[in-house]
Structure formats: C-alpha cells, structure tokens
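Sync notes, pocket subgroup
Present: LS, DG
LS reminded everyone that the earlier model was apo-only. Rerun requested with biotin included. Inputs:
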Amino acid sequence: MKTKLVQLLVENQGKYSSGEALSQSLGVSRTAVWKQIDILKKNGYQIDSAPKKGYKLIKRPNGIQEYDLDLFLQTKRFGQKVTYHASVPTTQSVAHKLAENGASEGHVVLADEQTSGRGRLGRSWHSAFGTSISMSLILRPLLEPQQIPQLTLVAAVALTRAIEKVTKLEVDIKWPNDILINGKKIVGILTEMHSEPGLAKVVILGIGINVNQSALELTQDDRNQATSLSIEAGMEINRAKLVAQILYELEWLYDLYVENGFSELKVMWEARSISIRKRLKAQTINGTIIGTSKGISPEGALLIEDDAGVEHLLYSADIDQ
Ligand code: BTN
C-alpha cells in the first residue's frame, strides 16, 4: 500500500488528494490512509495535510525530479533540461517525441515507473515504481549510423564509472553493454536512432538501473540473474546523485569520443570488461558460436575465435559466459 500511496501522491504532486479519494483508490479506510501518511512524514516525506482538502506532497526523499537533480548536477548540457513522469509506458517513446519536436541534445527523460519498458532484442524491461532508474537521453551526434554501437560502449564505460563513484562497488561490463556485479545484471542500455544516409540524426540512449529494489521486489524471473545496487552495497542509494553522476560521466566521455574517436574509449572499455580472453557462447541470428573472445575491434564488434580456429566478428549477439 505504501508504494501505491506514494505513487498516487507523486502523480498528483502540487495538488491536494482527498482522504476519501485515496482510501477508495487504495481500497482501505481513511484512518489507514492517515496512518500511512504519518509514517511517510516520519520517513522524511514533506506532506501538507489540510482539513477538507486532504494531502499534498511537497517533496519526498530519494526522488528523481528536476529539483532533486539540481542539487547534484555538474554538467553544462546533459540534464540541463529534464522531463519527468511518475509513470509512463516507456521513457524511450517520450524522448523520441521530444526529439521530433526539436528538443536539444542533453535533454533527459526520467520516470519513476515504466509500464511497457523496452529491452534489447525485442525483450521487455521491468522498472518498479520509485526504486529503479529509467532514463532516456537525447543525443544529436554528428556520427555515421554504423558508429552508434561504439556509442553504446561509451555509455557502458560512463555508467561503470558513475556507479563505482557513487556506490564504491566494483562493476564489470559484459559485451556489448550489460553491467554486472558478481555476474548479476544491474544495468541495461538500449540505443535507438533515427538516421538518414550517412548521418545518425538522433540517438535515444535508454538506461535502466536496478537501484533500491529488495531481493523480493526483483521479479521472480530476474532474481537469479539480476541484483540491485542496494542489495550489493547493503545501503539505500541516492538516485538523484547517481543520475547526476551518470550525466556528468556521459557528457565528458561522449565529448571525448566525438572529438577524438573511439581509441581511448576502447582502452577504457576493455579495462572494465569481463568479455575478453574468455571462453564463451554467443547466440547470433545465424546460430551459436562457442570459442574464445580475443577482444573488440576498432568498431566495437566482439572478435571470437571458435574451436576450429575460425575468427568471427560479432556486431549483435547474446553472450553466455
Ligand atoms: C536491455 O535489454 O538490457 C536494455 C534495457 C534498457 C532499459 C531502459 S529503461 C529506460 C529506457 N526505456 C525503456 O523502455 N528502455 C530503456
């Protein structure tokens, strides 16, 4: 009930919600609503209670709205414009629409919950209310469409740096762009673009992070393969601080990449990757390859030598390792 109550208050932020309306939406008594509000206040929520009007959320702890980010933001462009939604089908579609309407590079879309989050390779992505980070960053790089996979690797480097700085945890990159702690997934990255011949016009960089979910909150399917930063760190993580650090690392690494090319970023990616010089199994659209990874090519493709000594360059695949 607590999460649902917070969600209703956030969706109606700045306005009063009557005790009666809240009790009906939650299917509990008005006294139960009042008791929960009291608990929220004791936990740092600023909620105005007014007779006859109801409850109005002023500010909550660990939020990811513009004013939460402002406390930590150290960037010049990334995150200077923020579009926030309490709940949205997917931040990717919101960002695509904003970009179509001329939104500038660095504009970021954040949501506390996604109801139809998208993952790589047509999969879905689950983002629970209030405990995860779902963000989509609008980029307008002067790059060719075939360079965009490199940009995803740049994002993976930025994310590992940001997570390590904020949580002090050690994280690994699994090619192409999964971020893992002790073999369990913590971050997913999805890059989508609108291109024209020779130019990747708009790139929407989607990032999903398991931040403060408890083991119980991770969906049944995910529990064995995924974890959250708070489970690993043993403490609650400040989401706004993490988002701000991600935007900071992304901004400087993206600028470095656009100006100087991929070579410096390739070295940084390889230093954090667990996908090189390893035996692994790659599922590709053309079948399964088992062999040893030799590293990544200058374009960011994974080079695997199979057991017959044949080399394969993979641009897209699912890796078991
Ligand atoms: C993956 O499959 O690993 C990529 C997952 C990407 C999820 C993020 S959450 C924010 C953005 N909105 C989405 O619908 N997907 C991306």
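DG: Residues 239-260 form the longest helix (22 residues).
LS: The chain has three domains: 2-59, 66-272, 279-320.
Action: DG to write up.
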